[in-house]
């Protein structure tokens, strides 16, 4: 499975001439940056796990991104200004973000109007969320981590826990990647249903 991004960035808005993302630590090596980013974001994830940010609407995607990546990138919490694709499949056009965010707001409203605590029904809706937020892909980097936290908090609203990033579980990761890249809501629904648990 490929993992390549292609984007229009003729003025090097996000990367230097070697393709390394500009970062607050001025790191010039891609591998070093990956480690640095992982350490900084993991620390922020621990904090946000302890005190989750309340979902106020689609704007909370931006709030979560800023919180997680504030130590690494100047553009933390800012929507991308380039169009990107993965494995040749384009994500949502940045010029239409306003429409995309409004659609996510509608999904949040529908989710909150579900009175049932039926785990399957909630898994179907959360999978729809994940598919649409992934297609929106509003940030140049960090979309996966933001959408997993976004869904975790939405599950908490219904008294459920959802960990889409369990440690050392390649099966979950592969299903997650397969479902999101191929926009396969059946795979995502089954995965989320399997992982949803009652909040202790």
UniProtKB/TrEMBL annotation:
State whether keyword Plastid applies.
no
Annotated SUPFAM superfamilies = Fic-like (SSF140931)
Q: Which residues form the Fido domain?
A: 56-194
Query: What biological process terms from GO does the record include?
Result: regulation of cell division
**What enzyme class is recorded for this protein?**
transferase
Enzyme Commission number(s): 2.7.7.108
Q: Which organism is it from?
A: Brumimicrobium glaciale
Reaction catalysis annotation = L-threonyl-[protein] + ATP = 3-O-(5'-adenylyl)-L-threonyl-[protein] + diphosphate; L-tyrosyl-[protein] + ATP = O-(5'-adenylyl)-L-tyrosyl-[protein] + diphosphate
Q: Transmembrane residues, as ranges? A: none
Keywords carried by this UniProt record: ATP-binding, Nucleotide-binding, Nucleotidyltransferase, Transferase
Q: What is this protein called?
A: protein adenylyltransferase
| Record-level Gene Ontology MF annotations | AMPylase activity; ATP binding
Q: Which Gene3D superfamilies match?
A: Fido-like domain (1.10.3290.10)
UniProt keyword annotation of ATP-binding present: yes
